[in-house]
Each structure stands twice: as structure tokens, then as C-alpha cells.
Amino acid sequence: MHGHIEGKPILEVRDLSVSYDTGDRPVVAVDHVDLDVHAGEFVGVVGESGCGKSTLLFAIAQLLSSPAAITGGSVTFQGQNLVAMSEKKLAALRWRDFSVVMQSAMNALNPVKSIGGQFKDAIMAHDEDVAEDRPAEVLRLVGIDPIHLQSFPHQLSGGMRQRAMIAMALLFTPDLIIMDEPTSALDVVAQRSLMVQIKELQRRLGFAVVFVTHDMSLISHFSDQLVVMYAGQVVEFGATRAVFDHPAHPYSAGLLDAFPSIRGPKVPLTGIPGSPPNLADPPSGCRFQPRCPKAFEDCPKVEPELYQVGPVQARCLLHAPGQTQAEEPVRETTS
Amino acid sequence: MTSVRTDQTASGDADEAPLLETKKLTRHFRVGRGLSREMLHAVDDVDLTIGRQEIVALAGESGSGKSTIARLLAGVYTPTSGEIYYQGRATSSLRSRRDQLSYRGDVPMVFQDPFSSLNPAFRVSHGVTRSLKLHRPELTRAQRFDEAERVIEAVGLSPAGDIMHRYAYELSGGQRQRIGFAQALAHKPKLILADEPVSMLDVSIRIGLLNLMAELRRSEGVSFLYITHDIASARYVSDRLMIMYAGHIVESGPTESVLANPKHPYTDLLLGAVPDPRAPLTAAAEGDTGEPPKVVDPAPGCRFRWRCPLVVDKCHQITPTLRGVGEDHEAACHVAEADAGFAAEVSAD
What is the pTM of this model? Predict the structure, then answer.
């Protein structure tokens, strides 16, 4: 993997907030989020349904539609602030310089148009001068026979449809690909082979990836940096390996303990009790506090910030300066 | 291996027969356009047994035929050939509406997608009380509501009185799937067919549903057929594990034995695909980009041979059948068979 990457990030998200205007009380789905993505980096964003991770992606790509709107902060991509950009300029950038792979390939592909026809649409819309065999080339890159340019989406299997989506995202060799749970409709075998393929393509073509998922185990071997989101906030951020080995936030530890292992002793698991809070009325203090096994008296009173904990950052009062517990990591991984 | 039982002997003693058993269960679908006679072999010659209070996991990729088995057992499809025995009695002999209703009440199904399997126009109580009305007509209206409250409590939703009066959209995915289990539980079932009940849910919520299955087995005495593509969750919850590939059961046995000592190369492949952050990336899964074939009018031979790293000549000619490879542990693989000391039998074929 890349280790520490020098230089200026290609994507800088600063203090980004997104609200859904739902009448009496706006729902803050993304709450002052900072995120850096360097060239060629793989950044994973994990969290449960409703934590704001998909909203964050849509906000980065400027694809939000009413009632959601960016209420503050900036998204700087290759030196340009996307938030302030006109729709016309954005349309030129999207797909060419950064592209988006949506969650459900069946809904994202046009069912009445052949795969080749959909490639043509994209090329025409961008008025790009691409080689005639470029669609065939990108299909081959993702391991699909170019004969399927004539196929319609329903003739492809779920895994192939997802691959075709990724091929489309690669059409103009973008610098950044934003992926919203591209593997969630696939079974484990197809999922694993798609992940391996994304990583391999990334190594060859050098694009950066922002990858959203609820399954922390899925990206453990693939992402460089990991962002854990809870209730609209970043609760932990750091190098993937560091977060996996020593999760500093009890929520990250809970996510890691939520899935059974196929090796080692069979242990009863509890998952994370309760469900994510209603964002229209978040709990006081730390937002994870009502579900947290480590909560103590200060948690409902003080709103934690992101504190530096060794190599990672965590939004947990256990790690606030002056806390005695700070020396102890929340959980040592079983080796 | 026991020989195929005839109707007469099978319908003998209901107490000694396993809860549910299939013999050579097969389902083909006609595919192609117009007058095409092409047949898709979704399920071929499946023998499976589910005991009382047992959780049996059926694992395989998308398209392997696992859901077809669930639908055959639920009576949604009729078998092309083969037979399903429920408490020793062939289900094809259930002719009267009463018998069929009682079978369906005993063997309900929980569906994969909790977002589309509940009727959005009715309150949660509707689905539960409606099936009670059908399957337990002796209950009065008040008793039905009491019983509905009981099963909703049993699946871990409380306060049941409040939950019952909500609409599906007011519940989270995990809560909706619990309602799915409550509906199945209402008619005092013996066996719940759970078709990928957790695959649409967040990872953090799945474990709660798996724990619920184990709990219901203990408290309500039901068996489960747990269908999944996630072999790690199968390990967590099941007693026995069956691996399915392209319409065939390719390996079956006690869960721990199958996973600790997999005999079929496909089981290996499935094991390698499970993401495990505690282990290094396995090389085995990296090269595989194959998909299960669509088995249309298949020629004899092992259906896994195109993806198999161990393939030998014999795999192209003879379809392997399930043979014992360990205690109560069977695999349908020529190579595993030879390893297990069946070499003599192999050459005699």
C-alpha cells in the first residue's frame, strides 16, 4: 500500500455540513466533516445505515437534491471549490475528472439501452475525443468480454453489471472514483473478486478511491485510510491497519466485533445494541453515548472533539487530554 | 447411504422420521424463447434432512439454487421429480386444503428483503393476526391480539403493544426483519425457512438476528433452514452445513467439521472469500473471477470443473455424487473421494 503520502491532496473536504430541510427541525446528516484524499489513495468510509456516509459522497460529487443542501464548508478538488462551481462547469468535470459508481447497478444502468449505447451517451455528453475502441478497452479492463457492448443490463449477472458500472466510471481515466457500496448487492465470492479487481485497476491506473460501505471487514485489506462515521460525524480517522489493530473509539471496536469469524474459537457476539439516533434530535454530549459500553458520567454532558490517539484520531472523551483512561486503548485485537 | 424410501415405508412412524427430508429433489425450469425445450437445472437430486430443533445452513453463491430449494420446501414450486417428506409423510400426498394449510403453517418462510416483504398499507399487527386467523381459526379476536403480542415480544421487540400499531416504514430494517420472524412464528411452526434473512441488513445488526434464531430454537423449539452466502454467519449459528453449487449439494456435514476440514474445492473457495480483517489476504480467492454456470441441459461431469484448481480427467465425464469423507461428513468430489480412501471404488467405476 502507499503508507504515508506526501504532497497536496487532490480532494480536500473542509468543515462540510449537509442538512435535510424537513420542516420544523433540519436534519444534519453530515456535521462538520474534514477529509483528505491524495492521488492514488484508497479511503474507506464506514458506518451504519443513516450515519450520513452516502450523503457525504453525494455532497462531495455535488449531486445532492432538495431537501438536502450543503450548509457550510468546502469541497476542493484539484484546487477548485466544487461547492461554489456552476452546474455547467461541474458537468464537465464529473465523469471526466471524477466519477461516481452508484450502489445499485440495476437501477443506475438504463434498462432499455445496450451497454455500448450507454457508453456512447457518456462520450457524446462530454464531447470528448476518445478512441473508438475505448469502451471495448475499459470493458476488457474489468474482465468483461466486449461482446457485451451489445447486451442489455438484464442479460448480465449482478457481478457483471457492477463491473460494467466501474468500466463506465473508468471511461475517461478519472483521477478520483467515488463508490457508494458497489458490492452490497453481491454475494461474498463476487464481492471479493470485485474488490481485488478494483485494487488491481487502481494500482495500474493510479486513480484515487473513496469507498463507502457498512461492512468494515470488507475493506480491511484494501483501504489505506479509514473514516468511521456515526450520526453524521467522523468518530475515528486513521490508517486502516492502525484502526483495525487498535480501534480507539468504542463504536469502531463495536463494528469490528459485529461479524463472526470463520477461524478461531466460536464466541457469542452481541453486535452493537440499540440503533443509530434520530439526527433531527441527536443525544446530548457524545452521540454514541446511549449505546456505548464505555460511557461514563461526562459523556452525556460534554461534546467530544476529535482527539489525537497515537496514529489515529478519535472523537471520544476517554481520549480527551487529562483523562486518566487515555493511555489504555479501548480494545486490543485478538491475535 | 440409505436407499430411496418408498411412500409406504416413509409414512410409517411420524416420531422416528426426521422432521423434514427430501429424496432426489429436482426442479427444472423451461428457458429460452417460444417453443424452446431448453431446461435450466436449478436443483438436481438433492437429499437433505432437517431434524427437530436443528439449524441447518445451506450456503452457496447467487444462482446456486438455494432459494429454489426454499421455495420447493415452502410449496411455492412443485418439484419436477423427487419427493419431500414432512414428519415421514410425502408432501405430494397432502391433497386436502386442510392438510396443505397445516403443512404451510408448520413450515413458513422468512424472506430476504424486509423492505418489500411487509405490506406498507397496513399496520404491523395486520400481517401477524391475518396469518393467525388463517392457521389458527379457533382463536377469538382478542386471543389473536394477545398471541400477536406474545410473538412480537418473542422476537425481541418491545413494547409489543406499541410496535404492533406501527406501519412498516416506522421501523428500521432490523426491526422489520424481526416482524418477518414474528409472522412466521405466529402459527407455531416446526421449521422456519429463512432465505438470506440478514443479507439486506447492516453488518452491525445481523448478529442480533442470528442470535434471535438460536434463541427461538431454544424457546419455541423450531428448526431452521438458514440460507446464506456468508459462510461465517453459517458457522456462527448452524449445527449442520450444506454447500450448494449449480444445483447440486457438493458438501454436507457438521458445521465445524466442514469448515475445519473442507473436502470440496468449492468450499475452500467460499471460505477464502470471507473477508477477515484478523487474517492476511488469502491468495486462494484472488485469482477467481468465475461465476456459477447457468446449468442448461447439462452434460455429465462435475459442474465445478471450470473453476476447479484440482480438476482431473474424470471430472469431465462423470458427475460426482455425495460420498462419505469423514464422520457424518460427505462431499461430491472425485479428488476428495480418492483422498478419503475410495480409490478402489473410483477405478472400479
Answer: 0.85
